C-alpha cells in the first residue's frame, strides 16, 4: 500500500514509531490553555457548545485560508506541479484552493458514540476516580474541529520549462475533509475520535523515469477511536479503487500513547500548538498518531522571536482580524523616539505574532513554519492565538504551499 502526503499529515518520509509498546508508564502531559477564548478560560465555555441547537444560536469559529504556491522554492529538475491558484474567488468553483477550519463543542456519549470496545456503562462511569475526565453520567463535553481543503493542479514531467500536454502531464483535483473530537485544555486536549477522507495526488520519487512514474492518485478514509484514558486507540483504514471499490482495508490497535511525550491526534496538531504558551525560548516534543503511517510519530515544536504584521505585505491578514475582532490598542507615541526610515515614520500594525517551526523529532522530512497571533494579555486576548499563516514545503523539492488567513467567517460563541 502506498502512503500519502496530505496537508495535515507530516511527510511520510519521516520515520513512524509503529506498534507502540503497551507497557505501564507514567503519563506525560503538556500544559495547554484555551487561547481561542478572549479570556483564555481553561474549560469549554457554554456559548461554544452545539452551535446548531442553542437558543439563541451561537456560532462556531470558522476560519478561511487562501492557498498559494511558491514554485520558485522548489529545486526539482525532473518534473513540477502547477497548482491552479490564479482564480480570484479562491473558495469556490472548479479551481478552488483553500483551507477552512470550523471549531466548536458538542456532547459525546461514551455509551454510544465510540466503538464497542471502548464504550462505558453508567455503572462504570460512577466508579471512575476523580482524576478521570469530567462526565455527566456517560456524557462528556468535547471540542469538535472540522477541516475542509481543496486544490486542483497538474503534474508535468520534464521540468520547469516543459510545455504540458496529454502525454507528459497528470491533471487532478484533490480534497481533504476531517472531523476530530478532543477534550478541553483542562484535560490536555486529549483526542477522543478522529475521521479523515482524502483524495490526494502525491509524488512517487525524486527522479522518475517517465510521466507514468512521477505521481500516483490515492483515495482513502480512516476512523480512529481513543479509549477514555487516552492510553490506547483502534483505527480502521481503507483505500478506494475504481467505482469506490474498497482495497487494502487495515485495522489495528496502538497502546502506550502517553509513554514518552504529550499525545495528540494528527488532525488536531495546529489547534494543539495554538494552545501552547509560545515564545522565542519555547520548545516541546509531542507525539501524534498518523494513520497514514499506521503508527505514532514524534514531533518537535520550536518557538521563534515575536514579529509584527507588516501593514503592506500582511494587509490581508490584518483586515481579516480587524473585521471580526476589532483594531488593536495603539500605544501612546514616544516624542523622543528616533524610529524612522529615510526620514519617514515607520508604519505599524500593532498586531503581533509568534512564529513556530514544526518538524519530525528525528530531523528528517520537511519543516513547517506557522504564525499564531500573539497574546499580550491572557485576560483580554483580542486575536485569540489564531493561526495566521502556514508554509509547508512539498516533498522531492517541488515547491512550498502557503496558507494565509483570508477571512474570519464567524467567531466562537457569538450570537448568530
Provide a brief overview of the structure:
Keywords: Signal. This protein is mainly beta. The protein contains three helices and 20 strands.
Folded structure, characterized:
Residues 1-26 form the signal peptide. Keywords: Signal. This protein is mostly beta strands. The protein has helices at 122-126, 269-274, 315-325; strands at 17-18, 61-70, 79-83, 98-109, 139-157, 169-182, 191-203, 215-226, 232-240, 246-255, 262-265, 283-290, 295-303, 307-308, 340-341, 344-345, 352-360, 368-373, 387-393, 400-410. It is globular.
- Main sheet record: 18 strands, mixed
**How would the global form be characterised?**
globular
Outline the low-pLDDT stretches.
1-27
Compute the gyration radius: what is it?
22 Å
Strand share of the residues? 35-45%
Quaternary assembly: single chain
Instruction: Give the averaged pLDDT, no decimals.
Output: 87
Tally of contiguous helical segments: 3
User: Structural class, from secondary structure content?
Assistant: mainly beta
Number of strands: 20
State the helicity in percent bands: under 10%
Distance between the termini: 45 Å
Helix and strand sequence: EEEEHEEEEEEEHEEEHEEEEEE
Keywords: Signal
Amino acid at each position: 500500500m502506498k502512503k500519502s502526503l496530505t496537508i495535515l499529515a507530516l511527510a511520510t518520509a519521516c520515520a513512524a514509531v509503529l506498534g507502540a509498546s503497551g507497557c505501564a508508564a507514567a503519563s506525560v502531559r503538556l500544559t495547554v490553555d484555551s487561547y481561542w477564548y478572549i479570556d483564555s478560560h481553561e474549560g469549554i465555555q457554554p456559548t461554544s457548545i452545539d452551535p446548531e441547537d442553542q437558543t439563541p444560536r451561537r456560532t462556531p469559529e470558522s476560519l478561511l485560508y487562501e492557498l498559494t504556491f511558491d514554485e520558485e522554492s522548489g529545486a526539482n529538475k525532473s518534473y513540477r506541479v502547477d497548482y491552479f491558484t490564479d482564480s480570484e474567488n479562491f473558495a469556490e468553483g472548479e479551481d478552488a484552493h483553500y483551507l477552512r477550519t470550523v471549531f466548536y463543542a458538542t456532547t459525546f456519549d461514551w455509551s454510544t458514540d465510540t466503538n464497542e470496545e471502548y464504550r462505558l456503562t453508567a455503572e462504570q462511569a460512577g466508579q471512575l476516580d476523580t482524576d478521570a475526565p469530567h462526565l455527566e453520567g456517560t456524557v462528556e463535553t468535547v471540542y469538535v474541529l472540522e477541516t475542509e481543503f481543496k486544490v486542483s493542479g497538474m503534474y508535468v514531467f520534464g521540468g520547469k520549462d516543459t510545455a504540458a500536454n496529454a502525454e507528459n502531464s497528470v491533471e487532478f483535483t484533490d480534497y481533504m475533509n476531517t472531523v476530530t473530537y478532543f477534550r478541553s485544555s483542562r484535560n490536555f486536549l486529549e483526542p477522543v475520535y478522529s475521521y479523515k477522507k482524502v483524495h490526494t495526488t502525491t509524488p512517487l520519487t525524486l527522479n522518475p523515469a517517465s510521466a507514468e512514474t512521477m505521481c500516483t492518485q490515492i483515495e482513502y478514509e480512516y476512523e480512529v477511536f481513543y479509549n477514555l484514558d487516552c492510553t490506547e486507540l483502534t483505527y480502521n483504514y481503507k483505500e478506494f479503487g475504481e467505482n469506490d471499490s474498497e482495497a487494502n482495508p487495515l485495522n489495528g490497535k496502538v497502546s502506550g500513547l502517553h509513554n514518552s511525550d504529550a499525545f495528540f491526534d494528527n488532525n488536531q496538531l495546529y489547534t494543539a500548538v495554538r494552545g501552547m504558551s509560545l515564545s522565542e525560548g519555547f520548545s516541546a516534543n509531542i507525539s501524534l498518531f498518523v494513520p497514514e503511517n499506521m503508527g505514532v510519530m514524534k514531533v518537535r515544536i520550536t518557538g521563534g522571536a515575536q514579529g509584527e504584521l507588516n501593514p503592506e505585505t500582511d494587509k490581508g491578514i490584518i483586515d481579516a482580524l480587524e473585521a471580526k475582532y476589532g483594531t488593536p490598542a495603539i500605544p501612546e507615541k514616544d516624542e523622543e523616539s528616533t524610529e524612522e526610515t529615510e526620514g519617514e515614520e515607520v508604519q505599524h500594525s500593532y498586531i503581533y505574532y509568534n512564529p513556530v517551526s514544526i518538524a519530525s523529532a528525528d530531523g528528517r522530512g520537511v519543516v513547517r513554519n506557522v504564525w499564531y497571533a500573539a497574546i499580550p494579555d491572557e485576560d483580554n486576548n483580542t486575536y485569540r492565538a489564531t493561526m495566521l499563516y502556514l508554509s509547508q514545503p512539498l516533498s522531492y523539492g517541488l515547491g512550498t504551499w502557503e496558507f494565509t488567513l483570508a477571512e474570519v467567517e464567524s467567531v466562537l460563541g457569538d450570537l448568530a
